[in-house]
């Protein structure tokens, strides 16, 4: 039982605080022989890295990852992999006030009430900086998936930011990497999103978002009933990300409004002798096990509470105060949550690929 | 690593198939000295029990639970508790067809693809009958909670069924137990819900639902970062229930549309020297740790696919077919999901109460 | 984290007390498609069953095992298997005295100090009856091993009982099943062991023993560094058996007296292109991973404390007393520990076969 | 499930190879508020550190530990603690030969057969250097124990080295720290041990050893049946140390030769109202739960196979060869295993103190 770990077979343990010397992840259970180097991981870390454009925090961290163990001659050895990211841009300043005050909507209060001794510098362990470690671990997972199931693709994108939603009729898979918001829309829409966000920033406010992550090419049959269902593990993985308040698979909450006759994904036999479906209300998962369709997960990120608008709170001595969070914060943390969601998807998918291989071996049921 | 278990300290392992001789739960880690008997558990099982009114399936199971171990002289001993529920109403019939056909929206196909050898009688292990074991285990959790934190209350209710939603302006906590739908509304509304559901049933259709579960009186400080957050574990617990497609904490998916200035729960010092809040957008959880407010979780249940309306599918040999699911099925499985959601909440809350006691001992941070 | 479970992939959770209605094991993670029926399991339970000859306790339990879940059409389905053994010969009697007194060398005292509420009837959860559940689970493991690695053989035998030791020069593998002591020796030696034990019984005494368990045909490469080494898991498995006080692999404690030049198992290339060894001081395990040689484990069982010779103790109120344990007890619990040790070996070996398959897939290193 | 982790509540995950850039341990589940700094940990690392006298390897590593997370203002925060030890004395040399040859008695062969890609530099992950991480984690455990149970003392010492055994009649607890062998004997005996070992070294040989670790002041009632017994966890912990071939609790393997009348530890009521015992054959554990007596564990370490005496082996291509292990190796690895055994004892004891607190709260059973 480890509070800082997730995964059954591919097990990731993260450590580190926002303003400590370093943070990282211990990755256990990666198969041997997977080609991995620091540059491969850096690619994904750069995607999450702050300070890259005006839509994210201006904290400037190189987020350079070092592989300290478990890789030899450019390949994983099957032993535990240590990934370390040193913190460099920890602005020195007086933490006196923040150490005595609880920011509304932050974990300041709950960490204090739980532990007494909390690292208040930049949120300490509760900071979203922890997700850098997830992204590094997700990079390992991606390489291992590549070795096991070539062609399996994982991609995340935003579908909503505040009052803006994507137009699914104009969904453009290839546009995702071409804008600061990871939206599957053209440049003009991206500009509208930027204008919206900059206006909010000037109002000293922040906004929430929805991120959708899709895994294509997941083989049918992974996921393990009853309490390690693929959707169960994905729900936990996404909900564990900072600021996430909701998780959906397939139709998600909207399934409540559907009739059974509408919701059924009818089954056909595909040209390749595998089952195909008329629709994907299920989000690629039935009974906790993958169907072979796209696995589709969505999660909502709340607006960051670190805003310049004053909010009422109390000090550690119980006295009332108003809190304005200065410092360098993301007006929409959802943007940088996209690569984190992808990383979690990669870790969960790999985990279940390995678990299935261990428990079942080869898929046993055939069609036809 | 156990695929059929959940919980860190209070660990529940379920077993059994829909039409096997019995099903049940092994409950590990219940503290010693908790008064428990079969009648206490039966109370909650009766709430989930099928065949009680015309809004649920007509399968008639007494769902009588037997305690086979771990309780002595009317109290738990601290050792593993075995709870067994024998199946009695397994209608004998020819399963020939169902064994060869995959029902759209069911786990028939995925279990076949994963395992090859599946128990097709009534859904086997993937049947919602498994949730009876959860409710029994949840009954143990409730008694243990009562011993640890008197006054902690857990209650679930429906907030949506198809196109019907509750009126939060007329929320009636005490009405919940007084209608077949567990809605916090008066008798007239309940009648409307019944009319709606019976109409659907006559159309040979089914419908989805949303259930909300609230835990009141949860002490501040339970929940364990980063991967055993209270909300993470609740998300997994609810998503593991059959047919659940989405889970929300507090604002849930709606948080995406909010601004930071709207979403902040401002903090006051209460009369008892404990923090109080101007609102509960957070759903009682910050940074994965309870705030002392109500813990609020919602989950969406899809409409059951077991309907009399024909749906296209394939047989195990790949040939096309149309499936009509006869038999005794719930037109809205969300109704019977209410006590299941409560049971999962009880298990998770107890689990974290014990975990906190082990890891931290007494709350260490004080206010004032 | 489950206190009543063991295993990584093949996970066994036991439950039940000596004098409760039943006891059993939930077996999680057994691969699908393994042929299993109750008779197969009963074969091993009968080997452990009490009351079969005058060298074991006279409690007469049929130890009939029922499979309640996880097996369909004579094969495992991949879901959790519930094995139940009902207790039948629970002699009714007055437990007044035993409930108030602590037997020296028993868990009476420690269960009381830990839990307060203990099931004192026949030792409750601490009774060696719990091992019946292990033997049933081990029967499942044996069938799964048979399917995965045909020819892998697991056999246990006694090597010492009190002052008697086997003569390794006259080791007879085939004689093991032909005497009441499971010793690899001829009938004459078995008669000497019986005479020795009956003499002890008449002296109202009991005696300890050493059991050796060998697994032949274990493929090279199973076992997982650093904390799930094959020998680590075997040590835990054997030490968890009631009354065990020591565990050895290969040379065991005697390795302390050896020089490096004596202890080295020199390596050759065998006729089949696989490594062979000049000796097996290592007991078939290097660095926690199997070498392909026989895996050899030994464990020592202390003499049962349940003897008719009076021993000084205290009552629950602190007053001094003398304890004579009447009832039906084994003069040498080591005899019935043989099938238990075999069962634990089977569970651990299967567990690591599955784990290796999941983590590594096929053995990757070749010789030549 | 983590292959590189151990512990239930206090969970340690180690990482790193002998000749990689660094190694370390992630410590999860340490209670908050425990005073910890690097100097406290260094004290124990120095005890294990190589190159300190002529009886151990001449590899000279400072083994300087850095705390990268989880400690703030000199106290633990309750979040994951990262401990890193950088490798500095990795002699550069040609590994060509060692990469192609399997040393008898090493994990070279089994890692190759299991993983294919192995880090052959200095044993890689299988090197005893991994135990430095355990000692660092054990240092954390010691401080946490000090906060929870003042006066609890853990000490290890050698009892046998090859043909030499300590004289228990002249047992001197205070002498342990005063000689290079950690033996509880006077200076003259230590000189004899040194002469013996130096003679062996000149013969190009090595030798095995037995280490005993004692925990004094362990409260009664810790340890959790059935598969997390205190002795089960200690057996696993000790057997997981490199080169260990046997583990004993209390009488250990010698229990096999005893009669029940000899083995019983009779119970008295002590002056403080707690149970006392006439002897400690049990090694402080009954039914897997501590009795309040000294917890006594022993383990045997085999002689290192890294000797200058040639031994027959094969190369990776199957061709025969003779291996002489040059380099800097311990003639008796048992010496440096003493602080490792102590560290494992500390981790297991702390783990069970926390587990008991979580599961049971306060001891519930009283005497008198």
* CATH architecture type of chain A: 4-Layer Sandwich
Largest beta-sheet characterization of chain A: 5 strands, antiparallel
What fold name stands as the CATH topology of chain A?
Answer: Chorismate synthase, AroC fold
Low-confidence stretches of chain A: none
CATH hierarchy class name of chain A: Alpha Beta
Oligomeric state as shown: homotetramer
- Helical fraction of chain A: 25-40%
N/C terminus separation of chain A: 43 Å
- Domain module tally of chain A: 1
Walk across the major sheet of chain A and give the strand order.
1-2-3-7-4
CATH homologous superfamily identity of chain A:
Chorismate synthase AroC
Shape of chain A: globular
Name the largest protein-protein interface in this structure.
A-B, 127 and 126 residues
Strand content of chain A: 15-25%
Can you give the mean pLDDT of chain A?
Answer: 92
Structural category of chain A is: alpha+beta
Instruction: List SSEs of chain A in N-to-C order.
Output: EEEHEEEEHHHEEHEHEHEEEEEEEH
Number of helices of chain A: 8
Query: How many E-type strands of chain A?
Result: 18
Subunit structure (chains A, B, C, D): Homotetramer.
Function (chains A, B, C, D): This reaction introduces a second double bond into the aromatic ring system.
GO molecular function, one term (chains A, B, C, D): FMN binding
Binding site for FMN (chains A, B, C, D): 125-127, 242-243, 287, 302-306, 328
Short recap of the structure:
The first copy, chain A, is about 25% helix and about 20% strand. With about 375 residues, chain A is an alpha+beta fold.
